Amino acid sequence: MSVKMTSNQPYLVRAIYDWICDNGLTVHLLVNTNHAGVEVPIEFAEDGQIVLNITPSAVQNFHMDLSWISFSARFRGISREVLVPIDAVMAIFAKENGQGMAFDAQPAPETPPPSPPSSVKPAKKSSRPSLKVVK
Prior knowledge:
By secondary structure, this protein is mainly beta. The protein has a domain at 9-102: Roll (SH3 type barrels), CATH 2.30.30.220. 10% of the residues lie in helices and 31% in strands.
């Protein structure tokens, strides 16, 4: 009897992420920007791909589950929200030594990916930066 199992990719991405963080290295994610549901600053993509630094100190509101990776990060000083379906992850690796894991290209889903996590809030749009004194 054959049992259809879910993809192991989300579990492997999480495990490699934890392993790289535990070793104090910089976690980078290679993402297919042409995949349905990907929301990244497209102006930083090249040839349908973007490399994202997802090290805890580089991102805020980081969330990873079996379907999505979401966070906010600064790109040239501007805070942006990023949404990446797990199937769009092409590789996860350490910047310093390249160790990690690459994944086979996933075909575009026939149905739209599930909704992103509800914890993701749209970035506030401001016409100019502001500073706040904290005492």
